[in-house]
TrEMBL record:
<feature type="domain" description="HTH luxR-type">
    <location>
        <begin position="165"/>
        <end position="230"/>
    </location>
</feature>
<feature type="compositionally biased region" description="Basic and acidic residues">
    <location>
        <begin position="1"/>
        <end position="15"/>
    </location>
</feature>
<feature type="region of interest" description="Disordered">
    <location>
        <begin position="1"/>
        <end position="20"/>
    </location>
</feature>
<dbReference type="InterPro" id="IPR000792">
    <property type="entry name" value="Tscrpt_reg_LuxR_C"/>
</dbReference>
<keyword id="KW-0238">DNA-binding</keyword>
<dbReference type="InterPro" id="IPR058245">
    <property type="entry name" value="NreC/VraR/RcsB-like_REC"/>
</dbReference>
<protein>
    <submittedName>
        <fullName>Transcriptional activator protein ExaE</fullName>
    </submittedName>
</protein>
<feature type="modified residue" description="4-aspartylphosphate">
    <location>
        <position position="76"/>
    </location>
</feature>
<feature type="domain" description="Response regulatory">
    <location>
        <begin position="22"/>
        <end position="143"/>
    </location>
</feature>
<dbReference type="InterPro" id="IPR039420">
    <property type="entry name" value="WalR-like"/>
</dbReference>
<keyword id="KW-0597">Phosphoprotein</keyword>
<dbReference type="InterPro" id="IPR011006">
    <property type="entry name" value="CheY-like_superfamily"/>
</dbReference>
<dbReference type="Pfam" id="PF00196">
    <property type="entry name" value="GerE"/>
</dbReference>
<dbReference type="InterPro" id="IPR001789">
    <property type="entry name" value="Sig_transdc_resp-reg_receiver"/>
</dbReference>
<dbReference type="InterPro" id="IPR016032">
    <property type="entry name" value="Sig_transdc_resp-reg_C-effctor"/>
</dbReference>
<dbReference type="Pfam" id="PF00072">
    <property type="entry name" value="Response_reg"/>
</dbReference>
Length: 236
């Protein structure tokens, strides 16, 4: 699904990274997409935003970006495949247009996910349940070419980066991070497979890969890493 909405009658949306006057919103939840569009429309006159483009999936989002080259993108990270496929979208957009300003708009407050979004090329990161004022601040800050990260998330990311002696969680891919999170909640292989819509063998293979990456030998040790990480994220 792709929609283009014009807030002004003039302006070419191409090549505007220096002062973005066109914005692309990518999210597979229509309510969320509509809500953020209204936020941008309210800011359009004061910020000089002329066009708002919308996409409800990764493919159409990249196609619109490739064709129109908007100066700013607001992108979700998780789509209907339940994976963090938005990370690959951000990387592809930055590879095509390095100066595009990307704001990750996500429900994930996991510091590893936040770090991966920033490493992929997002200039800012804001949670979907953040107050409207915070979302507006995130949008205007990133549009101006500055980084944005709420203090609480910034603290989590900083703590994660300071743990140089800990397990290298940054080496895990998006699927493995999801499985690790579910393991920390006591979910079985079968339940994890059902929740993520993958095969039982996929979960087993991912756990084997994680044990190798994290330097642990048994499932019990892997679960211990998962639970310890979960406690750290919650500040326990």
């Amino acid at each position: 699904m792709a929609v283009e909405r014009s807030t002004r009658s003039r302006g070419d949306p191409r090549g505007e990274a220096a002062t973005p006057t066109s914005v692309l919103l990518v999210d597979d939840h229509p309510v969320v997409l509509s809500g953020f569009r209204h936020v941008v429309e309210d800011l359009s006159e004061s910020l000089g935003i002329e066009r708002i483009h919308e996409a409800g999936d990764i493919v159409s989002g990249y196609r619109i970006f490739h064709k129109l080259r908007p100066g700013m993108v607001v992108a979700d990270l998780s789509f209907q495949d339940r994976d963090l496929s938005g990370l690959s979208l951000i990387r592809r957009m930055r590879a095509l247009q390095p100066d595009v300003r990307v704001l990750a708009f996500s429900m994930h407050d996991d510091p590893v996910v936040v770090s991966r979004a920033l490493e992929s090329g997002a200039l800012g990161y804001v949670l979907k349940d953040a107050p409207t004022a915070t979302i507006v601040e995130a949008f205007t800050t990133v549009r101006a070419g500055r980084g944005f990260l709420e203090h609480r998330l910034a603290t989590k990311v900083a703590m994660l980066n300071m743990r140089g002696h800990g397990p290298p969680l940054g080496t895990l891919n998006a699927r493995e991070l999801q499985i690790l999170s579910l393991l920390s909640k006591g979910k079985s292989y079968r339940v994890i497979a059902d929740n993520l819509s993958v095969s039982y063998r996929t979960v087993i293979g991912a756990c084997s890969s994680m044990r190798q990456k994290l330097g642990v030998q048994t499932l019990a040790e892997l679960i211990h890493v998962a639970v310890s990480r979960n406690k750290l994220d919650m500040g326990v």
